[in-house]
Amino acid sequence: MAISGGLLLVFVLASIFNAEMVGNLVNISFEFSATFFGAFWQVLMLLTFLIALAIAFSKYGRVKLGKLDKPEMSTFKWISIIMCTLLAGGGVFWAAAEPMYHFLSTPPMYDDVASGTQEAVVPALTQSFLDWGFLAWAILGTLSAIVMMYGHFHKGMPLKPRTLLYPIFGEKIMEKSVLGTLVDAFSIIAVAAGTIGPIGFLGLQAAYGLDSLFGIPNTFLTQLLIIFGLITIATISAVTGVHKGIQILSRFNVIFTFILIVLVLLLGPGAFIFDSFVGSFGVYINDFFVNSLYRGDAEWLSFWTIFFWGWFIGYGPMMAIFISRISRGRTIRQLVTAVAIIAPIVTNFWFSVVGGSGIFYELQTEGSVSGPLESGGMPAAMIAIVEQIPFGTALAAAFLLVTIVFVATTSDSMSYTISMAVTGGGNPPSGLRVFWAVIMGAVASVLLFIGQGSIDALQSFIVFTAVPVSLILLPMLWLAPRVAGKMARDQGIIHIEEKSKKNAA
User: Fold this and answer.
1) What is d(CA 423, CA 438) in angstroms, rounded to the nearest whole number?
2) Which residues contact 224 (CB under 8 A, 6 or more apart)?
3) CA distance 469 to 420
4) Residues 6+ positions from 48 with CB-CB distance below 8 Å
5) Does residue 452 have a pLDDT over 60?
6) How far apart are CA 103 and CA 217, in angstroms?
7) pLDDT in tens, 336-347
8) Cα dihedral sign, 256-262-266-271
9) What's this model's pTM, rounded to 2 decimal places?
10) What pLDDT score does 62 carry?
11) Do 18 and 29 touch, CB atoms closer than 8 A?
């Protein structure tokens, strides 16, 4: 904790004393990461998804994880927690803005399509589906979660990132291990940075929304109060634990988001949304491998897909811990299906609802969404879209609320998970959960006080922190199949199947 917390403190202090120097260093590290690790990350993400599918739909898919016969919570509650924790990092505002960006400037893979036209709708959504689809979700909790659950529940190792390397190093990686300490520290830094960024970003976006909708001045004080409210919610949720606060908050947000989707479909361009989703998803599947491994325009790639890959990879080890904590009694097939198939499809449809609506209104009236997006950024895009739907002001306020709760669910889950990583147990002390929730909010507030450029610098810093984390996740490609096979033998699954085949013959 001292290493990870200390490095974050150094980053903040350096930003206070010389923000320009920090910005330059971060830009250099960002370019280094994108240039030398971009292709590696693309291959890592693709292989993680494919190997997870192969394990899930093989005989190993029946393996039960966590040494528990029945799951601890219902499937709906379980998927709700997963969805809210992983989508919340930026899914609401990115859902409004990213499809519009790609619509206004067609991705280079589809450079033969004219930007801003009806034909540009499918490429815009297809690229958004890639950035927030199967690969993004798979890296967050499939192979790494299988290895983590094996190490913790089946071998008694602590719930720490270093447990991911237990199948290689054995108990040497545990206590008083330099490598183990570094693995834990880098993982905590990456996920803390990845959570602090959205908290600060939310302060900017929510303050803009309150100013636009209700005339509340968009000042630093407003942003600070929003973050204070967010962290208060997250702290209460984290302290009450997985089965109370985190679960209740996640379930509320999923139900509320579903209601918003239905309202947008009924009051907005429902037919356009469905047509765009189906057509774009088909192209996404058809061009899946080509787009996943695209290396043509390096500058564009680093700004979009590689940035997202770095962000999601940084969450990988800690999400393995969190998903392990809530997934006892689930089979590998259930785990992979929920995380790598159901969640991405729901996310893609969400992007079609919000971003697709924006494209529809932009096609109807040029500049109605692109103008606010250019002048006010992502929060302006979401509000510009929703206000064109009947009862727009009420809907915009509802979207603002759901965004705040989404980020709160990420903050509570990550403060809880970092606390687990520090202690190695599934029920860390309440004081530690509060500490991490407060410290992430405090860092975000300080960076906001310094200026929006500091938040941008932190988001670029996220990509650099993903470099060591990606090396931690690389061995999961062969460790997950190995431990899945061992658990299948221990549970008699392989033996049972072989015996049934002989009897059938």
Assistant:
1) 18
2) 203, 445, 448
3) 18
4) 135, 138, 139, 142, 143, 473, 476, 477
5) no
6) 32
7) 999 999 999 999
8) positive
9) 0.90
10) 95
11) no
